[in-house]
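User
New here, help please:
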Amino acid sequence: MAKGLFQIYTGNGKGKTTAAIGLALRAAGAGLKIYIGHFLKGLRYSEHTSLERFEDSIFFELYGGRDFIDLSAPSAEDYKRAATGLEIAKEKILTKSFDLFILDEINIAAHFGLIEIPKVISLIEERPYKTELLFTGRYAPEEFIKRADLVTVMEEVKHYFSEGVKARTGIEM
C-alpha cells in the first residue's frame, strides 16, 4: 500500500465489528500485520478464538474490563480503561509495526465522552503514512467522518432482537 486510508464502519445496524474482522482476515491473507483494539469490550467472544489462529499476523487487545458498561452512567473505571486503551493504541500505531489498525467501538467511546475526541484526532493525524486505519461503532463523531476516506453506515431495517431473540454464540458473540 502506498498510502494507508482511514475508514469508518458506523450506524445502528448489526455487522460493524464482523465486517472489520473480515477485513482483518483479508489483510492477513495478503501477508499484512493487523492490530485490533476493542474499546468497551472486556469479555472474549467467539471471534477472539478465531483470531488466535492468526497470531502471527493479527494481534488484538480488549480495553473494556467487563461485559456491560452503562453508557448513561459510566464508572470512573470505565473512563480510565478507555483512556488507557487510547494510550495503548497510540503507542502501538506509532511503532509502525502494523499495516492495518482497527479500533473497534471507538466511535461509541468518543460519542459518550469516555475518550477525548481531540486525542483520537491526534492518533488519526499522527498515524504512519502507510497504515490503514479503521474505526467501528455507532455514533461516529462528525470530526472523525470529516477526516475519513471511506464511511460505511450499517442501517438496521429489521432485527430479530426486537422479537426477543437473545445473542447467540457464534452469531452475535
Q: What stands out?
A: Helices lie at 16-29, 46-51, 76-94, 106-111, 117-126, 142-147. The chain has six helices and six strands. The mean pLDDT is 90.
